[in-house]
Design a protein that fits this description.
458 residues, mainly alpha, Fumarase C, Chain A, domain 2, Ribonucleotide Reductase Protein R1, domain 1, two-stranded antiparallel ribbon, two-stranded parallel ribbon, binds arginine
Length: 458
Amino acid sequence: MKLWGGRFTQSTSAATDSFHSSISFDQRLFRQDIQGSMAHVEMLAEQGIILHDESKLICKTLLEIQSDIEEGKIVFDEKAEDIHMNIESILIQRIGDVGKKLHTGRSRNDQVALDMKMYVKQEILEIEQLVLSVQETLLSIAENNVKTYMPGFTHLQKAQPVTFAHHVMAYFEMLKRDSGRLRDCYSRTDTMPLGAGALAGTTYPINRELVREKLGFSELTRNSMDAVSDRDYCIELVSACSILMMHLSRFCEEIIIWTTNEFGYIELDDRFSTGSSIMPQKKNPDMAELIRGKTGRVYGGLMGLLTTMKSLPLSYNKDMQEDKEAVFDVIDTVKACLSIFDGMISTMKINKENCLKSLQTGFVNATDAADWLTKKGIPFRDSHEIIGKMVLYCSQHKKAIEELTLEEFKQLSPIFDESIYEAITIECCVENRNVIGGPAGSYMTNYIAECRQALSNN
Ligand code: ARG
């Protein structure tokens, strides 16, 4: 018998039962559902809507049901649709009429909103922890590589020298913003919807404030129609996760490039690499590729949710049941990606020599040569032109800028003197860029320490 069967003369078809059932995926909300129901009935008793003894019996039985679910003793029933009605039906089977009072002054519409918000809040905290752990790993890598010189790229063409520390700290900044977005999303998820009922609140003298306090929410939702039809917090979470995945994916792309023979900047640990079934020599960066690939899947979740919501009239519509698989999949995917990513980057070997060797080609000190001229009084545009010619000359003569003789330098501009050689060493190119946010070790070391401190205050 359906909990809502009263107005029907026929039961649903088997096809309908299986089509609209969500128990296969929403059963993961059982703890939130039980916690929410307990707060609700305790409040009903405190308001004199049901008896204290009834509330106690319901709560005791709900806790028993919870441990039975945890121990795998419960077989959920597809016909009971979702986790909310499965638990309520089991409760009624166990304690009869008293169990039927649980749903007083409540609807599945505010109930599911509550469960999802509680779940999303918890998961945001867990994702934030994983992000924090990756940030700590990035700081450790940075601390050990303040003097690991490597080319910085634009257009994937060698541009100017930077350090490995500077490069990975760019990702630290991205993750810092990701964390901020997650926290932001948490604050907007933290509003308690119970009491909204189906859409128009309830006539029972409930106390929403009491429920809010019991469940640890900061605020109450303030419009019952919005409360049951709002899925912004799901979209915001998935959106924050999409941006986060985009960052991981960019780093993974660089890892994939850096592990090639052509680059050889890093080597991934065996524990995070795979071989080929045919080519014995292969060591492939599959983990990085999978994270890059799963980014598409997370974006898919975002597109799916936005599209599901875009034409829904107020208030609840069953379409919204489609939120769950997307949100759950995104959360599972992002958590798995973050922890694999953390393991992969914390164990990778950085080949400092190859990074340095890579700086010998590509004229990465050309800007510094131009700046040397400008500091001697030549307008920058002219310096640019002179060094441009120099690079052309060097390419034709297969020389690096620093390999030119002073005579050759002087042919391009008589202003050149011996001090040009020092000014265009990789070390000077990097260490003189001690602007706030730049790659110089003097700045980097302090900034990394500052970030360490900030993380530990978190
Ligand atoms: N399983 C439903 C969902 O996830 C719960 C709410 C159902 N409400 C309703 N009026 N049918 O959205």
